[in-house]
Hints:
The protein folds into three domains: 32-51 and 179-275, Glucose Oxidase, domain 1 (3-Layer(bba) Sandwich), CATH 3.50.30.10; 66-174, Enzyme I, Chain A, domain 2; 297-535 and 548-555, Phosphoenolpyruvate-binding domains (TIM Barrel, Alpha-Beta Barrel). It has 20 helices and 19 strands. The protein has helices at residues 68-97, 99-112, 115-128, 132-148, 153-173, 195-201, 219-227, 263-285, 340-354, 388-393, 395-408, 424-445, 461-465, 467-473, 481-489, 507-522, 540-546, 558-565, 570-582, 586-598; strands at residues 4-5, 10-11, 32-35, 37-40, 43-50, 186-190, 208-211, 231-233, 247-251, 256-259, 291-292, 298-305, 322-326, 359-362, 414-418, 453-458, 476-479, 526-529, 550-553. The strands form three sheets. Strands 11, 12, 13, 14, 15, 16, 17, 18 and 19 form a nine-stranded mixed beta sheet that branches. The protein has an eight-stranded mixed beta sheet with strand order 3-10-9-5-6-7-8-4. The protein has a two-stranded antiparallel ribbon with strand order 1-2. Strand 7 (208-211), helix 7 (219-227) and strand 8 (231-233) form a beta-alpha-beta unit. It is found in: Cytoplasm.
Amino acid sequence: MSEKTSISADVPDRPEKRRKKAAVSAKTLLEDSYTGIGASRGIAIGTSYAFEKEQFEHENKSLEEKEIDDEIERFLGALHRSEKELKKIERVTTRKLGKSYANLFEAQIMLLHDPVLTETITARIRKEKKAASIIIDEEFGHYLEKFINSDDQFFQERACDFRDIKERIIRNLHIRKLHSWIPEGTVVISEHLSPADVILLSRSNVKGFVTDTGGKTSHISLICKSLNIPMIVGLGNLSQQVKTGSQIIIDGSTGNVIINPAEKTLLRYLKKRDEELQYEADAFRTAEQPAYTRCGVRISFYSNIDFKEELEGIQASGSEGVGLFRTENLFIDGTKVPSEAEQYNYYREMAETLKPMPLVVRLFDIGGDKLLYSPVREPNPNLGWRGIRILIDVPEILESQLRAVLRANTSGNIHILLPMISSLEEIVFIKNSLEKLCGEIISETGTACEKPFIGAMIEVPAAVEMIEEITSAVDFISIGTNDLTQYTLAVDRNNVIVQDLFDKFHPAIIRQLYRVISTAQKNRCMVSICGDMGSDSLALPFLLGCGLRKFSVVSGDIAKLKKTVSGFTLEETEALAAECLRLDSAAKIKGCLENFQAAR
Length: 600
């Protein structure tokens, strides 16, 4: 639903989809605007291209006995063609973004070689005498249902990978060519896109992407950030309304999409785009210099990463180390636990590359609805068996990871971060495990064991309530604002229906942040932020005013944040924070922050 503004109408509608129609002559197309979720910053102005994937009707017939072997050969041939396509995409990705993102496609290729999957589909074709496309759709459907309905971001992203593989195999059953070339310089609008789609379409100098589904931390969003391509997600059914050839503006910072912009709107966005490009150019020229506020206080910026290959460029971005390494990406196919040796080699290489800069290793943040160790489907996995709970209940996973970290920490720059902490007992358990394992390693090797700093993620309201005890028990804390907002407001951050209620500037969130940061400072516990809020330049002065001095963000955001920091004094940010803490609505808080920025 939307708001329509024209000569004769003013009809209110849903707040997250605001649509305005400019008053113009009957011969002129009306300006329409929509608001989604900004997933990759930047302004794109151009012509829309409606990207639709080819749909295939399943051959719903019973196979004759003589057709079964041919159908199995068709299936195996489709696997082979799919592998060739993915290897091509992997090469393009390596060239454009490096090895880290190419690993996404390595994992898909590994799935194509999964003997269990191949044998299951082959056996079902032979036994049930059904077409391969039907069996493939059903087999992948079992996984997709679990992944799509997951409350865990990691597995929701894997749903996109599984859907892509399923569609790829079925298309190759029909021996249809991969749709990857589109007109140069368009803004792509689609119901959903896979990482492979984004990589291949980017070769056509795409100006921006808009999708009906998706989240800010999905693989496609991260890829667009790395490629500096604006992206907006969560537009509902916009792809059904906008056809190829419409004039379009997208603003990845605000989530605004404007179709058929009026001349004054176009001029305003052209000016804004030029100003943003100039600002970013100025920021990157000084990215590697330390960040200071206008009154001379040092502010530190670290990187959130998923793969070791990302280390190559973090220093050039101005990063001072890794503030969050998401180790769950070591689960190559989403299910197989990496061995101690695999983890040791991975962590050791990263620590050696970074030293003396820190490497914060978050222990496996895996959820209860993943296909690991969970024989039954939980009614609400987001409130179930996940994070630290799994690590405590399955000691072989925990101890293998802790041993790998302890052995790899020869330079003393690895720190451990505990996910989903809600009680002091969980921290004590990990500390005791570390003591025990450290003793074992010393006995085995005869050499000293460098104990890492221990930190806790603050991402559930229980941790906020226990913040006095937690900050007295650990060396550092890291605030995960995404989950903290989700759990505090009881709003699924990936649910489009309630997306407008997911607001990091809600007074409850603002007050929690101040409480956590000020308590950590009082107890001399290091504190940083690793959620999306840390990358938001609007939130930055408020966080500084609360006392935050360390930020862990996407590497590409660091240069701009450093430049933003230089425009404030702590005295004025503290006054701003005090004012925001007195306000009683997210709208008032955002208005206060916007006025503060506008004045500077």
